[in-house]
Amino acid sequence: MQPSQPTVQPLHPRLADPTLPALAGTGVWFVASAGLFAARVVVGRELDELFWTTTAGWVIGLLGYLLFRWQRSAARRGSRSAQSGL
Q: Between the CA of residue 54 and those of 45, 58, 60, 83, what are the distances in Å?
């Protein structure tokens, strides 16, 4: 006798949507970058590698989110070159 495979329920659409985590992560990088820039203005702290790392974090996060939105809109339009499953 074969053991039965458990059925897995699909995730709730709100939990499967990557929009909120992508924007939250990008926002965290932006807040860190803004805080380091404010430290530069108020205290005179140098803009070192940490500032540039956080700036690159939110810029890359924003570009990734925009690419995701572009692909999703292409999939919804029915474009042949769009990714499927978005």
A: 15, 6, 10, 30
For residue 45, the tally of other CB atoms under 10 A from its CB is 14
Name which of 52, 55, 58, 66 is nearest 24 in CA terms.
Answer: 58
Decide if 29 contacts 57 (C-beta within 8 A).
Answer: yes
Phi-psi region of 4 (alpha: psi -120 to 50; beta: other; left: phi over 0): beta
| pLDDT tens digits, 7-63 | 888 888 888 888 999 999 999 999 999 999 999 999 988 889 999 999 999 999 999
CA distance 12 to 19: 14
Q: Give the model confidence (pLDDT) of 37-47 as tens digits.
A: 999 999 988 88
Residue owning tokens 């992560």:
25
